[in-house]
Amino acid sequence: MSIAFDVVFGLFVVTILALAFLAIRWATRRDRLARARQAELRGTAGEPPSGTSMAPGPTPKEHTL
């Protein structure tokens, strides 16, 4: 193998590792911010923000006979 190939391949490996590190760091920061925001919303008197319901999905309709 030539030295040029070794240098180019080494730069490629370092670049891939750096991108993986940056992606993981970005994802963990985003996740922490989202979890903090969720905890903050839950901590406000135990009620969801205005305009939202406690359970996801459509509200149940009353059945009349």
Provide structural commentary.
The chain is an all-alpha fold and 65 residues long. It has one helix and no strands. It has one helix at 3-43. The protein is elongated, with a radius of gyration of 25 Å.
List keywords for this structure.
single chain, 65 residues, mainly alpha, 1 helix, 0% strand, elongated
Question: Any chance you could write out the topology, listing elements then pairs?
Answer:
Blueprint: H1 3-43
Please compute the radius of gyration using only Cα atoms. Answer: 25 Å
Number of DSSP strands? 0
The N- to C-terminal Cα distance equals 84 Å
Largest sheet descriptor: none
The best one-word shape is elongated
Instruction: Tell me the series of helices and strands, N- to C-terminal.
Output: H
Number of helices: 1
- Low-confidence residue ranges: none
**Helix content, binned percent:** 55-70%
Mean pLDDT: 83
Helix/strand/pairing class, anyone? Answer: mainly alpha
Gist of the model:
The protein is an all-alpha fold and 65 residues long.
